[in-house]
Amino acid sequence: MNIAVIGTGYVGLVSGVCLASKGHKITCFDSNEITINLLQKGKNPIHENGLTELMIENEKNILFKILNSSTESNLKDFDVIIIAVGTPTLKGKTDLSQIESVAIMIGKMLKNSEKYVSLILKSTVLPGTTDTYFRNIIENESGKKLGKFGLGMNPEFLREGNAVNDFLSPDRIVLGYEDLGTLNVLKKIYQPWDCQKLELNTRSAEMMKYVNNSLLATLISSVNEYANIARELGEIDFKKVMHGVHLDNRWSPLKKDGTKIFPEILEYLRPGCGFGGSCFPKDIKALSSLAKETSIKPNIIDSVIAVNEGQPHRIIKILEDRVKDLSNKRVLILGLAFKPETDDVRESVSIKLINLLDKKALSISAHDPIAIDNAKKFLDPSIRVNYIDNWQIELDKADIIIIATKWSIYESINKLSNSLSEKVIFDTRSMLDPDKFDIMNYLSVE
Ligand code: UGA
Fold first, then answer.
1. CA distance 125 to 286
2. Which residues contact 275 (CB under 8 A, 6 or more apart)?
3. Structural Rg of the chain based on CA atoms
4. Is 0.85 topped by the overall pTM?
5. Where are the alpha helices (DSSP H) in 258-298?
6. What atom in ligand 1 is closest to the CA of residue 279?
């Protein structure tokens, strides 16, 4: 199919490239000229495993164009327009300004076109956005009713760092539609995929995305709260507690051979320093704010947010309980990205920890294999951080080492320095084996 994708962020770019790899003819549009110039040269503005290779392999199926005033007439050529622009949070509410300007442009294009085009939202938007907000703009601008154009909602379930794999081998594909023409279009787009495909209205598709993310975030905040209670009570081996909980067959079913399956979901049931990224914090706040427009008080969702916002403070408290005075301590933060395999630092707990440690610690150094440049943009320039390339050398200089991102390279920490026993190692991601450290200098949230 001949498909336009508007927006070349994580979602739009990965979707465009993966759809091109299945033989669709894709044109990706973005208003950011720097991004488009890079992409036209075969370079990738984001770090995503396997994306550049797939993009180059399929270059004959994919074009990159700047989104500007001439885009409106260009859009007439497509059978499908997928919208994957950003939906950030502004004062606790979803900012739909990017969706709005794209909708106005498409509506104007439709006014002067007789062709049926399916408009499919891929951006994460709250229930009702596609069938009411977006549809109204399109109908008002075009003077046409739904049916003359098509409307769909096709949420993504892509994890940053694993997004290409998640797109090419999805658990399910959600085909949200408001007209049968669009359902058929969606079926055609995803015909090369052999997985469960769910057909439902656009509101249900939108809700599914929020429930999926909110439930995962709920698991993380719940287990963090249990760990916090256990630590305050004292003399509780929380690692063992959670191991026992995980062994419940309902979490980890028995296979026929008597061994257990430990599903990936258990990873969300380990205590840590809280969740971050561009999705969970934004999505659950948006769902809470939408719920408050109804008669439902989102008690659980609000608690998930509160526990998560408190977790970086909790980390500093645990550290101060052990170290007492930070003012003469050199702190090394290992990991700046919000999770491994990405250079994204949006809502990263590492950044929050640096903000809290500023003015408390004697000095702060920080390492990340790929996210230092992004961290520099996000951190207030008045905060003094010594960014380092060689973290192994820095180990000897630091008094406190905080592992803040679960990069696998940090697993080798105990082999890299002879002076670790003189330092505090705070494993906020519970990624190291505590038995390999002196109990006096190993610190964790468990
Ligand atoms: C999340 C969802 O997992 C995707 O399904 C969804 O499509 C995406 O949001 C989105 O809305 O676009 P992502 O934010 O990339 O994807 O990453 P996750 O791996 O789910 O991690 C989210 C946060 O939870 C991170 O801060 C991570 O450190 C934390 N996390 C994740 C944990 O604390 N423990 C874990 O076991 C996994």
1. 9
2. 217, 220, 221, 281, 308, 349
3. 24
4. yes
5. 280-291
6. 11
